[in-house]
Amino acid sequence: MAAQNRQDMGSGPVKPLLLQLMIPAVVAQVVNLLYNIVDRIYIGHIEGIGAAALTGVGLFAPILMLLNAFAMLIGAGGAPRTAIALGQGNKEDAEKIIGNSFTMLLFFAVVLTIGFYAGAPALLRLFGASDATLPYAVAYGRIYILGSVFVLLVMGMNPFITTQGFAKISMLTTVIGAVINIILDPILIFGLGPVPALGIAGAALATGIGQTVTLVLYLVVYCTTASPVRLRRKALRPDASLEGRLYAIGVPAILNLALPSLLVTFLNDLLAAFSESYVVVLGIYYKLQTFLYLPVSGIVQGMRPLISYNYGAKEHARVAKLYQLTLGMSAVIMAAGTVICMAASAPLIGLFSSNPETIAIGQTALRIICLGFVVSAVSTTSSGALEGLGKGAASLVISLCRYVIFIMPLAWLLCRQLGPTGVWHAFWATEVLSAIIAFAVYRRGISKK
């Protein structure tokens, strides 16, 4: 990792620095999204069993989410602490954090691999697998689980590379792994030359190979290049007090991810009482939302390590500038999303459904929900900034407001007053109320220096 590929986190103009960290994050997310789409397309076209195989992979999703959660527990908890330590000039503490994080990821990988491999059939039955789909879910799941050590290490250690200012390296390793996966998918699923057709097992194997290559690249980065901190043997020894500090950020970060799923389940129950079409529209909205929030998520990812580093260095003016710049950029993107949803709501819904009733309901839903897009930038920016400051609990307060405290009661109340349209109104009302709380929580968090 050459020195010229590293961004200086504590000096230079803030805007170019944020862009240098943001753009690679967005590219990596787009490539991963593309991989997931392509992977599902290939699986769906396996002759004779495509539909059942695709359902089986879908049933594995809860286990995959749990694996991702444990990776985030360490990555989201350790990366901000590492950046803060680097900002303070405490290289020894930064290396200790990275070493402990690597050790914890290995421990979780071993425990989860044994537990999930043995319990896969029972867990998949619990998640809804039938006699027809269980064989495919188990075939895919067990191979994927055997490679979970690579998955956890890759996902858990990736934030540490960006934290050290190597956003391009982080992007390249992620993209290389995803591209290898995309290339190997058709070869291993359908067979090519001497390679036999492995079906759904081939899809899982392709993922494992891609993640293994990415992990090898990470280890080369950490062990052989001129990075600010490296993996050292003495830093791998577990430290209980340090692990507690990591969990203080990592646990709220996991809950932040879990809350949207809880909300979707709640809203589906409300909307199903009126018509299945409303449930379909809600699902379409969340698919569209993924593309809209992708660049915003990239900006926040770019901001987070910069805020951590400068907060540790006591450069509070730069921290404030980073927050303001991220907020402004996010608001501009969300404003563009609002205009698009207002002007092209019917065509957007039409991408996913040709049913006239679904398109009509979706058109109304998008035009109402998008009223809260711009103001939502306050919540997303504040939450990300607080995670960067090492204040995970404060970040969780904002997520609770957005996904539980405000929207659930509002949706329940408004749908009884306005029918299913009331659920759509609950979205923008929640964003306004959450933005007020988010800004107040952020100001309080940043004032505690």
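The above is record 1. Record 2 follows with the same two-line structure.
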Amino acid sequence: MLLFFGTITGSLFDAGYTKQLLMVGWVLIPLGLMMTSIASQYWQIFLAQAICMGLGFGSVFVPCVAVLPQYFKKRRAIANGLAATGSGIGGLVYPIVFRQMQKSLGFPWTTRVLGFIVFTTMSISVSLLKMRFKPAERRSLVQLSAFRDPVYSLFCVSQFCGFLGLYNMMVYIQPYAIDEGIMGTDLAFYLLAILNSASTFGRIIPNYFVDFIGPFNVMIPMAFCSGIIALGWIGVHTTGSIIAIVILYGFFSGAFVSVPPVVLISITPDLRDFGTRLGMAFVFNSVGTLAGTPIGGAIIHASGNQYLGVQLLAGSCLLMSGVLLVIARLVKSGPKVFIHV
């Protein structure tokens, strides 16, 4: 829902409804957490977490990404990377806070406290984020003509392939460490926090170089490195190696997630259409994200709790994404190697 809803929110952003979208998320996300705290059945949790919070996140995600290019011209990539560090920091802080608070407060009140924290931090976003340029005319909800551009189409398909495999390591690295006897439950819990902390640096450092060598030239090696590291997961059987691969994957996958908006800026002829194009691209991401981890789980279950299949899935999907990005770059700039693109 966070990504799929971008088709609508991207168009609404281009139409000038940034503040309204932020306020919708400001209400729905804390509300979803509060409702989760009193939920006692699966359908209640599904409505609160997946639908209510999903719509809330979808309302704020595209505006938060699309508003930055209006304020920056020369340093858009590093600005986007710095803003994207919030995801990595949040992914580090929230699980640890939840785990520690739950021991003393219990699940209901811990979830409510997180709701209050989200409401407070989002209040800052709602008060500060605003469009710099108002639209002069009505914008279309969907711009299907964008898919006539082969570079944009290839980029969208590459995002689908990449996100089909991207989250499998993030979701299954913890049960892998436990099932293989590499770590105990307490230590394995912190693997995702370590991954997210590494992704914070992956959202800053590669974005810094985007301004000098171009977004495609940064994103392509990030995709290939993420795929190679995911395949390297096959040979991980010790505590040190699993921590090392989590750090590396966090760094390169962080860049893979944060650079795409900058790539879209570079291939969008009219930035007044940026929100719409960004939202449509996120639909491909959403389908890959929705399908990827359930497919990985089905592979693990069908193979008798073996992880080789999901490791191959994660690596091959990311490598395929890198191949499609190379083709998109060739279509855009030709076979030239040393060119800013």
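The chain is about 75% helix and 0% strand.
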